[in-house]
Design goal:
Elements (H helix, E strand, L loop, with lengths): L1 E5 L18 H27 L1 H15 L15 H13 L2 E4 L4 E5 L2 H10 L2 H17 L5 H26 L7 H30 L7 H28 L3 H40 L5 H15 L4 E7 L7 E8 L5 E6 L5 H7 L2 E4 L5 H9 L4 E6 L9 E5 L10 H21 L1 H17 L9 H14 L5 E10 L1 H8 L1 H15 L7 E7 L2 E6 L5 H16 L2 E3 L2 E3 L2 E10 L5 H17 L3 E4 L2 H23 L3 E9 L5 E12 L3 E3 L1 H11 L2 H19 L7 E5 L2 H4 L4 H11 L7 E6 H4 L5 H10 L2 E7 L6 H6 L4 E4 L1 H4 L6 H16 L3 E4 L5 H10 L3 E2 L8 E2 H4 L24 H4 L29
Parallel strand pairs: 15-16, 18-20, 20-21, 21-22, 22-23, 23-24, 24-25
Antiparallel strand pairs: 1-3, 2-3, 4-5, 4-9, 5-6, 7-8, 8-9, 10-12, 10-15, 11-12, 13-14, 17-18, 17-25, 17-26, 18-19
Helix pairs in contact: 2-6, 3-4, 3-5, 4-5, 4-8, 5-6, 6-7, 7-8, 8-9, 9-10, 9-13, 10-13, 16-17, 20-21
């Protein structure tokens, strides 16, 4: 009786999935490559370890043969006609062997002692070795074991037999085989054969896996002792019969076959008897148990695992609406305690049980759906059955990973597991544990997967739903995202408080909830962002129409705490084929599309690759801008402002310019928004103020009354030390406060927050100017109270005033308003002589624009300070620039498109020049 190979569990917990990295694509590819390389090295190492002992065993056998066996002869006289019978008997014994099993280990015992000893007695050592190897190897080929194990099983059998032959001859000496000494030699040889074979099998296992799980040594030793005694008796009788009569061999062969088959049937009957007893014991224990889920569910899993001799067991109970796709799950794996978790049903076998009933699955299964589900559960083979065939308690029971992978599970295992599941149903139903757990878990999971303010699904719920939609989408199906962000919500929070803001979010969430459906999920991502997942997205036009409907619904006026409120909304739309995208990519693209919609003043916008590239460029520019500020790579250009009546340059507007080594010249309309979003706008503002005042100090040596204007952002206006820092810079360059003019956008100077700061700046003597006047929504009463000195008429009205009567009416009104308030009116964007003459006729104080001069570097501006540079030849001293050199001005006379309704406003920061072109 020998051990014919072993099948050992690969891991206590099964294969582990590799978690996908959430880093940038380049690093993720490198990580995946390293993981693949590590797996390849692991497979090569395991293959080498599996095959390495085989040559060693073959070499040991060859050494024994050369050293001792070659000189030996058959102990009972050689009878070559027995060779095929010995080989056939070895094949039969190996093929009909029976296992000793535990959850982590399997021994396949082979009752081939009689066949081996007849070969030792009546065949030459070489003939006996070849006969045993042939029968053993052919039988092993019929088992689905890995080839290294088949080779090791057959070669170690030959090595063990070689030692048994040597021991048999040494003990026998010159005595006859049919004698008391011969019987002793046979018994000792069988003991050596069995012991060496099992020792080699266990050694091979230790070589491959190490001592990670319990080996059934007690069962093995007892079984081997019994079989050595039985096989010794059988071998002695068989040798005696063959010695006395050749015809007796037929009787011996029949007897041995009947004995082997009977022994196997008895072993199987004993196993079934033990299983039935265990089932009844389990049912009785569960029926009488008063324990809670902490005791009962792990006990159910342990019994299921024990009865099916498996390594893993799992019980899953799906939750009911509105938590579809969520479940409770208990898992027992390895030697640790059972684990409990609440979460989504992420694939696996359990959902398939609802559709197909009880399942038996192996990795070799031809159904790809079953193979993917098995891999999702991290199992090598498994059987899954409904927890309740009647559906009284929805759920599933799974058992997987037998240590002897070549056998897997069968129909008998399905019946056995269904018995365990039926018993579990009875116990769980009687105790009410599952219903209580479902109620408690539903409450917890609802809170975990829903927004506490609006009651909508939250970001975690949205992420899982989107990933599931992508994973389960049919071939060619599209998934869409509609990302909505409220416009002006921040002002509601700051003006009316967070309580009103929260009430507004609740109302918007209630309105958007109407867009949800079986294939559409409405969720709140956080703040004022809402999203709709479209699992089976329709055409682009239909999705865009739905987005526009969302904007209309969210933008409707609402009454909260007696306030009539209305905010706008921007929606980004992205649609992609599910099999060619992922959740992170969709959300990022929806965000790009949403900000594109915001840049157009709200509404809905489809994702465009060009916008995406632009956003990536802006991300890079933020880093480059910081470096440029630190390295002093930015420059200031200056655009002159002339007094219309005299034609003299009275001030310059400082405008930031940036030329990048890689990107080339970068316009302020691109890098100023980057500075605002990245928090660099303050650094840029203070750099511009310092540089402009330094240059003004030099110019004032030529024109003492000259001033400089610098744009000030709303963020800088909110700085608590603004007045002190401005005063410090003026003192540093020894300039009077009146030499500095700060330009602010109309929207920033009309806010309450900046009123006090503006008063302090005005009290200091700094001149204040409202830039882009006419594009905002200023109250005349507030403008009357603000301490400004100048209004700058926006170029969108000035550039077309000679062609559009409405624009001229606006310009005239602003000039009259400024005169009435005793302020200065400056026209931006003067593009031709006719416009300048018309401004003079309307009484405009000053002007700037490309007709007069484009923004120039400081060294080129010195010539403009000469009093005769702008000659006075027209009405009221209008500068006559008609004779200016065309090459000098270049394309400066080409009018810039006017900003009409809905166009982006100026930001009021350094570089946002009033008279500039884009």
């Amino acid at each position: 009786m020998r051990h014919n190979g072993g099948n050992f569990r690969e891991s206590a917990d099964g294969p582990k999935p590799v978690k996908e990295s959430v880093r940038e694509p380049g690093r993720r590819v490198k990580t995946e490559t390293k993981v693949a390389e590590t797996k390849d090295r692991g497979r090569r190492s395991e293959l080498w370890r599996s095959w390495a002992p085989v040559p060693a065993v073959v070499a040991a056998t060859a050494g024994l043969y050369v050293w001792k066996l070659a000189a030996l002869k058959a102990a009972g006289g050689e009878r070559l006609w027995l060779w095929p019978l010995v080989a056939l008997a070895e094949w039969f014994a190996v093929y009909q062997g029976f296992p000793i099993r535990t959850r982590t280990f399997s021994l396949h015992l082979v009752p081939d002692g009689v066949a081996c000893m007849i070969g030792v007695a009546f065949l030459s050592p070489l003939g006996a070795l070849l006969a045993v190897f042939s029968g053993n190897f052919v039988a092993n080929l019929q088992h689905p074991r890995p080839m290294p194990k088949k080779a090791m099983t057959s070669t170690k059998a030959v090595l063990a037999l070689s030692l048994a032959i040597i021991v048999c001859h040494d003990v026998l000496g010159r005595a006859k085989l049919v004698s008391e000494r011969g019987w002793l030699a046979v018994a000792i040889a069988l003991l050596v054969l069995a012991t060496v074979d099992v020792a080699l099998a266990l050694g091979y296992w230790v070589w491959l896996r190490g001592f990670h799980s319990r080996v059934p040594l007690k069962e093995t030793v007892v079984q081997l002792g019994i079989d050595v005694v039985v096989n010794s008796a059988g071998a002695i009788i068989g040798i005696t019969l063959v010695w006395s009569s050749a015809l007796a061999t037929v009787l011996l062969a029949g007897t041995l076959a009947a004995f082997t088959i009977g022994r196997r049937l008895v072993a199987r009957a004993q196993h079934q008897d033990r299983t039935v007893k265990e089932v009844f014991r389990h049912i009785g224990a569960m029926a009488s148990s008063d324990g809670g889920e902490a005791e009962l569910v792990p006990a159910i899993l342990e019994e299921a695992r024990k009865l099916l001799t498996a390594s893993k067991a799992s019980l899953m109970a799906p939750l009911r609406r509105p938590l579809d796709g969520m479940a409770l799950r208990w898992t027992l794996s390895g030697d640790g305690p059972a684990t409990y978790e609440e979460g989504p049903i992420a694939g696996g076998l359990a959902p398939l049980v609802t559709e197909r009933g009880a399942l038996v699955v192996r990795r070799s299964n031809e159904d790809p759906v079953l193979r993917r589900a098995l891999a999702a559960d991290g199992m090598r083979d498994a059987v899954a059955v409904p927890l309740s065939p009647t559906g009284a308690i929805p759920g599933y029971l799974l058992v997987g990973d037998r240590p002897y992978a070549h056998e897997g599970f069968g129909d008998e295992d399905v019946k056995l597991l269904e018995t365990v599941a039926a018993n579990a149903e009875m116990v769980l139903k009687r105790t009410g544990i599952m219903d209580r757990l479902r109620r408690e878990s539903s409450a917890r999971m609802y809170e975990a997967y829903h927004d506490g303010l609006t009651g909508l699904p939250n970001r975690a719920n949205f992420s899982q739903r989107l990933e599931r939609a992508i994973r389960e989408a049919a071939e060619g199906a599209r998934v869409g995202l509609l990302l909505l962000d409220l416009d002006g919500f921040k002002q509601v929070n700051e003006t009316l408080g967070f309580r009103v803001g929260d009430a507004m979010l609740v109302e918007v969430g209630r309105r958007l909830e109407g867009f949800s459906g079986p294939k559409a999920l409405v969720a709140r991502l956080g703040g004022d962002e809402f999203v709709i997942v479209l699992e089976d997205a329709p055409s682009d036009e239909e999705c865009l129409a739905k987005a526009e409907e969302m904007v209309a619904v969210a933008s409707r006026a609402m009454t909260i705490d007696n306030f009539d409120l209305a905010v706008g909304a921007s929606v980004g739309v992205v649609i992609e084929t599910a099999r060619h995208t992922n959740a992170g990519r969709l959300l990022r693209k929806a965000d790009v599309a949403m900000y594109r919609a915001k840049s157009y003043g709200g509404g809905a916008s489809m994702y465009e690759a060009a916008s995406d590239s632009s956003s990536l460029r802006r991300l890079s520019l933020a880093t480059e801008l910081r470096k440029a500020l630190e390295a002093g790579e930015l420059q200031l250009h200056y655009q002159p402002v002339i007094e219309v009546a005299s034609g003299e340059v009275i001030s310059f507007e400082a405008l930031a310019r940036w030329s990048h080594d890689q990107y080339g010249p970068i316009g302020p309309d691109e890098f100023i928004p980057v500075a605002e979003r990245s928090g660099l706008i303050d650094s840029l503002t203070w750099w511009a103020l310092d540089a402009a005042l330094s240059q003004l100090k030099q110019w004032r040596e030529v024109v003492p009354g000259l001033a400089v204007a610098v744009n000030l952002s709303a963020r800088s206006l909110a700085a608590p030390d603004l007045v002190e820092r401005v005063q410090g810079l003026l003192s540093r360059w020894q300039l009077a406060p009146g030499a500095l003019r700060l330009e602010l956008t109309e929207s920033s100077v009309t806010s309450d927050a900046g009123h006090e700061v503006l008063s302090d700046l005005s009290g200091l003597g700094v001149r204040l100017s409202i830039d882009d006047f006419g594009t905002g929504y200023s109250s005349l009463s507030r403008l009357r109270d603000l301490p400004f000195d100048e209004v700058k008429i926006d170029r969108s009205f000035v550039s077309d005033m000679c062609q559009a009567e409405d624009d001229e009416a606006v310009v005239r009104s602003i000039i009259q308003l400024a005169q009435g308030l005793d302020k200065v009116a400056t026209a931006e964007g003067v593009e031709d002589k006719r416009t300048l003459e018309r401004l003079a006729a309307l009484g405009c104080h000053s002007a700037q624009g490309y007709y007069l001069s484009k923004p120039l570097p400081a060294q080129q501006c010195t010539g403009l300070l000469v009093p005769s540079y702008y000659s006075s030849s027209g009405p009221r001293g209008v500068p006559d620039l008609g004779s200016r050199d065309e090459e000098e001005w270049g394309s400066a006379r080409t009018p810039r498109p006017a900003r009409k309704d809905g166009a982006a406003k100026g930001t009021g920061v350094p570089g946002d020049g009033a008279g500039e072109r884009p």
